[in-house]
Amino acid sequence: MKIFSGKKFEVHIDKVKLPNGYERELEFVKHRGSVVIIPKINNEIILIRQFRPVIDKWIYELPAGTIEEGEDPLNTANRELIEEIGYEAGKMKEIISFYASPGITTEYMRLYLAEDLRYVGAKPEPYEIIEPIRLSIEEAIKMIRERKIEDAKTIIGIFTLKELLE
After folding, report:
1. What letter would DSSP give residue 8?
2. pTM to 2 decimal places
3. 14-28, pLDDT tens digit by residue?
4. Of 2-11, 26-35, 152-161, which range is least confident?
5. Which residues contact 86 (CB under 8 A, 6 or more apart)?
6. Would you say 153 and 144 are in contact if contact means Cβ atoms under 8 Å apart?
7. Measured in whole angstroms, how far is the alpha carbon of residue 99 from the centre of its chain?
8. What domains are defined for the chain?
9. In which region does residue 7 sit, left (phi positive, over 0), alpha (psi from -120 to 50) or beta (all else)?
């Protein structure tokens, strides 16, 4: 049963039957899915420093966004890359995908590597407070180890890229 419907997701409470026959009430967020982009220029990547009001703090993240109704995920990745950091990608390739938090949401995230970047100017949404930051992969890994990067999709993206480059 849907109890709330917003622009990006719905909240449901449903009774489900588990594979062992046990029935339980389940609360979850139904989500269209999202994309995460690793913008790579030579040996550097671009992160964003963004204020997140839900946790009331600034955090470092890879550019990302929700897939619009009926939108192709690759188009979402290209759109978000321009909106958040102002770059257009000559090459965009999906490298991994994963569930954000399968215990509470259906959100499925697709991680893209964006290369051959050309600056065209950022177009952030009015509610997005974003500062792009360019740094080496090694610097980003150091920030993860120092707990300066706390965002799961960003940590997954950086370590996936590091593995691809080795």
Report:
1. S
2. 0.93
3. 999 999 999 999 999
4. 2-11
5. 119, 120, 121, 122, 123, 132
6. no
7. 11
8. 1-31 (no CATH), 32-165 (3.90.79.10)
9. alpha
